[in-house]
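Quick question about two entries, pasted in order.
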Amino acid sequence: MDVTVESNVPATMRDGTVLRADVHRPTSGGPYPVLLARLPYGKSVPMMATMMDPLGLARGGFIVVIQDTRGRSASDGEWEPWTYEGDDGYDTVRWAAALPGSNGRVGMIGGSYFGNTQWMAALSKPPELKAIAPQITWSEPDDGLFARGGAVELGITLPWSLMVGVDTLMRRHADDPAALGPALGALVHDLDQAAPSGYWELPAGRHPAFQRHGIQELGFEHALRDPEWSAACRVAGRQAEVDLPSLNLGGWYDIFCQGTLDNYAESRAAGRPATLIMGPWAHMNRTGQIGDVNFGMAASTDLLGFRGTLTDVQSAWFRQWLTPDATPSRPELPPVLLFVMGRNEWREEREWPLSRAVDTDLFLRADGALAFGSSQADEGADTYVYDPADPVPTTGGATLLSSEYRPGPLDQARVEAREDVLVYTSEPLAEDLEVTGRVRAFLHAATDAPSTDWVVRLCDVDLEGVSLNVVDGIVRVEATPAEFAEHAVDLWSTSYVFRAGHRLRVHVTSSSFPRWDRNLNTGEPVDSGTDFRPARQEIAHDAARPSRLVLPVVRS
């Protein structure tokens, strides 16, 4: 179909604020269902194309509405992240349903922040909203957005807040060009310098860059100071309130990997018609090449295992909910479509998590060994010194940082060569081992500091000895110095086959910087601490203190 685009179409919210949208519509025929996206990044920026294809969707028979959220780009009002997305989402859905040519039924689409705006609108229950398709978005903001395991998600918090601060400064100095130039120059300088200097500034929880530019309300410190503010974007525990079908799309190396899985699982547990697609992707990369690994062309959203493009799949899925009388254009999606890494193939499932996955203990052993059998002897403990002045560099993973830090599976040789990283390696596997589900670690650990972090990473070592990261996690603890305690570390989920002849490897350390802020080992609050000290760390692995990973193993 031919498509027309109408720019900056106004919609008036309940308080009189006008928000503006670009409306893509077929030039003839109808009525058509509406697909709505609400985002704070600018409705015309190229980045949006990685999340959705408005022209392709409109050619497929949808009216596609892309709206700038309150106080952003072409929309009026004051922007405060998350705060207005429920009410504005409700009002916008009702407005969109009444657009000329609409059939009165609305779906929502998009990812990340504008995946969350879907959940917020759905929780407000506009009657015309019939389906949502959130991609790569969170569930619990303190588990991947603001924090993880008690540590600050510094890697995303700093550059994201500076990036969205550009529009804030442009509005602030709109009537004073002489002030605008220097203000933008200084902010962009800080954004460019995030890796060499910005990430290192303290205190991490009250970052000096936010103070310099007067954008404190956009940063992590707002969440620390005002829990109700961060609760405004919380989906966790509320999925059952959304009585709508959802198509949840995520990536194993996406920063919101676990949030996507949790949103799906909780929706299904509440009896909602939810669908899940999990690829090997990172947040901004949905090709088959992620990090150092080529997962194949079929892994990309251009093919999806030869099921069609993501736009094709989304169009067919939305059509069944927004035009119920339409003839299905392609086979119905399974409840769960997983990309199994290592084997590099798509697999259809009926559930998540998989009930046939068996929790299997993998024990840390003496001399850097890793085994499925626990020790019956007194093996003592392994030690290292963690110095916040020289943290372990983030190398791959489910990350979204400044561009110097690539996400995905990367060679871990540089990490494993460090003295402050304990490395445990299994014997070569006699047969393939599939791990599909949530991976957890239980460390019996001690420190001489009043507070410290424990980081655990699971890796795959191939036949050439190259070690690639699969999943990792962190937990921040308060400690009684020199006293052993058991600490649980959530490594999040994966679907990965360790091939025969490969070896499993586990890292234990106390930092992954700048993804997570450094624990300064002093116990000072994150929003005021600037002094730091080294900490002596101990990891036990004997019969009485069995440090281990728990792997969800799926047998062939």
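Here is the second entry:
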Amino acid sequence: MSEEKKRPRSPVSRPLVALGASSGFLAGFTALAVAELVAGVVRPQASPLVAVGGAAIDRTPAVVKDWAIRSFGTNDKLVLQIGMLVVLSGIALALGIVALRYRRIGAGIVLALGALGAVAAMSRPDSTSSTDALPSVVGAVAGAAVLYLLAGRLLASRQAPHDGEERHGAVGAGWDRRGFVITATAAAAASTGAGVLGRSLGRSSGRAAAASRDSIAVPAPGSPAPPAPRAAQVRVAGVSPFVTPTEDFYRVDTALVVPKVDAGKWRLRIHGTGVRRPLTVSFDDLLARELIERHITLTCVSNEVGGPYVGNARWIGVRLADLLEECGVVPPSKGGRADQLVARSVDGMTIGSPVEDVMDGRDAMLALGMNGAPLPFEHGFPVRMLVPGLYGYVSACKWIEDIELTTFDAYDAYWVRRDWSREAPVKTQSRIDTPKPFARPKAGTVMVAGVAWAQSRGIDRVEVRVDDGPWQEAALAAEDTRDTWRQWSFPWRATHGGHTLTVRATDRTGQVQTGKRTRTVPDGASGRHSVVVTVE
């Protein structure tokens, strides 16, 4: 017996290693597919990919997150999920090889990974039930079982040899081909079916929300937005439209799964420090109130100088200051106890806004509609918050369900805990839309044009510089309001050769856009946008 224990293990043949790795991959696929099916029953956000991905986003340093947005744009979440699948595939392949020697250890590691997924799901801010652990747990059990069974089929050659003869050579010389193929095929087919059914259930979970959105007819506002001046749009090809089409409006958030909220079940609670009369309102309650409609330009703090994360839309909603006054809230300048409004979304995001800014007379609102239609799901349906003049991370809570009045000293919102500033007014910025970087225009008159913004202050002047020459004033398009961007154009007499075009704006306070370059962290990028062109 002791000699048998000391006998060295037979080497594993290369073909068997490949089959073992394939077994691990199939076991991983099974785990994720079954987890997807269970998440379709529980809730899509409980999927291990979503839960672990959300946890990864929460723990990612601000500079890394900013780099991801800068590098991948609105595809940053897709890149994260693809990266997670690549890593999980590598782990699964390795576990399949490990299981050729240590079946129970391989299966045990799969179960351990499932436990980690369960912990991640239950620790998410929007988790309200222990059932969120089920997708990870059930998926891990299914994956471990498949790995254990397939490894057993491959290790059939390690059974005791017949007729008392000791078998030598590589492990796998006599593996159960038929059993392996049948088990693998059945597992692959069942897992594929589970994954497809899970996705279908996940989509169906949002059907009630979609139906509620389709049934909404946003009423005419009591305070409609004046028509934008026709001259607000410059007649230069390549300039962004004055009103950004909804489908082109930027989206930057942390949600791996877009929340689908039924407007009929939605409620908003207003409470906290200095709230003398707490209030809970429904979607219909908001529709019954006087609605305001305004053109407002929103800007993401992750927008680099000259970046695309800025857009102008026609929003309709309820004036937020009116609701707060109804609750007895008083701004700090008038002796109010709360200086921070913390908005919470259904997915657990928290965004802190200065109470003073919300109640200083600007058109801060709870928006119900965008460009003449109910909000799209990805932009916050049924209700989102927005405050002109503030970057989105301190004002634009999507899928909002709770407003708590507190102080900046008492509570740090999500982004503040990740090294962003507590307060972040939008900086005066401008962008060259045309010509594009590295364009090759013909010599002669070339129209240089773009947009400038300084929400809540307004744009007073835009200037263009060619190479190291003097600043020359551009022609401004008509202004809609101080809360919208303003287009500009400049006829440049282009000469042959390479040139650098730079733009700067001046707001109504007299503040000139700084030339000092800073990154987006902690309170938005600064600097002047420039493009290099070659005139032919």
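Reply: The two ends are 87 Å apart (CA to CA). The mean pLDDT is 93. Hope that helps.
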